[in-house]
Amino acid sequence: MDAMAGLLDGPRARGAFLLRSVLTSPWSLRVQDEAPLTLVAVVRGEAWFLRDGHPDVHLLAGDVTVITGAQPYVVADHPSTEPQVVIHPGQRCATPEGVDVPPMTTFGVRNWGNSTDGPTMLLTGTYPQAGEVGLRLLAALPGHVVVRGDSWDNPLVSFLADEIVRDEPGQEAVLDRLLDLLLIAVLRTWFSRGDAPGWYAAYGDPVVGPALRLLHHEPATPWTVASLAAAIGVSRAGLARRFQQLVGEPPMTFLTHWRLTIAADLLLEPEATVGSVARAVGYGSPFALSTAFKRVRGVSPYTYRTNVRNRPPIALEVG
Hints:
Blueprint: H1 3-8, E1 17-23, E2 28-31, E3 37-44, E4 46-50, E5 57-60, E6 64-68, E7 73-76, E8 85-88, E9 92-94, E10 105-106, E11 111-113, E12 120-127, H2 135-140, E13 144-147, H3 156-163, H4 171-195, H5 198-201, H6 208-217, H7 225-232, H8 236-247, H9 251-266, H10 274-280, H11 286-297, H12 301-310
Parallel strand pairs: 1-11, 2-8
Antiparallel strand pairs: 1-12, 2-7, 3-6, 3-12, 4-5, 4-7, 6-13, 8-9, 10-11
Helix pairs in contact: 3-4, 7-8, 10-11
């Protein structure tokens, strides 16, 4: 498993909010849905991304931006256009005055806007819960990332634009995976420019790189710093010091978070039990896994699984 796979193992969209917007000027959308991560791609036309404390960003066809954090932002045809729609948590839409009847309408499955053939088309994909994105990924990203369309050659944006409005059996799962793939492709491009966090670059280090690969490939192994150091042929102190310096946390802390990332995914398998998941990720008992899971993620494995399985799919509310 390479560095990108390790970083992005967290994203597992499940019933993500996905929408294709077709728009004619003037238009402006204020988003305050508190989602941990959203991806906006410009299929055609142009748009502006506006957020307090950040420079205004002009987006052109082919550009993709990844937006993190709960701070509101605006996507509009021009910085001077006042918001016409406010998007709240749960993708509830309202006018700026709070009336739950936005001045836009739906045009079929996952298709929305103020025109059926407007010059601007946007794709929006939202991860509604932090657990589906991965805390390490969120910590690695700034408030927003932009990859310009002329800086990469990737067919996923146009492919997703076509798939997003299809209504076929299993389509939600298809769209979830496409969203994950597009996110990975965007961030891989962005990281390749030297904007990656320090620990990402640690995979190229002759000491820390092999240690990270062992932890990723063999999370169930009862690792200690001493056994990990012995496996790669370095001193315990040398590994601990170098790992902390490059990754930003001790090896065993990294391993704990990695194990719990895998556990969160396994818990959603139909036949999984807390005991079977505990064994798969290196915990000696369901109690040990539950204790660690609750300490790091704030809820027990049972509560996490119940919350995710019972969460209703997000639908665009139009009043």
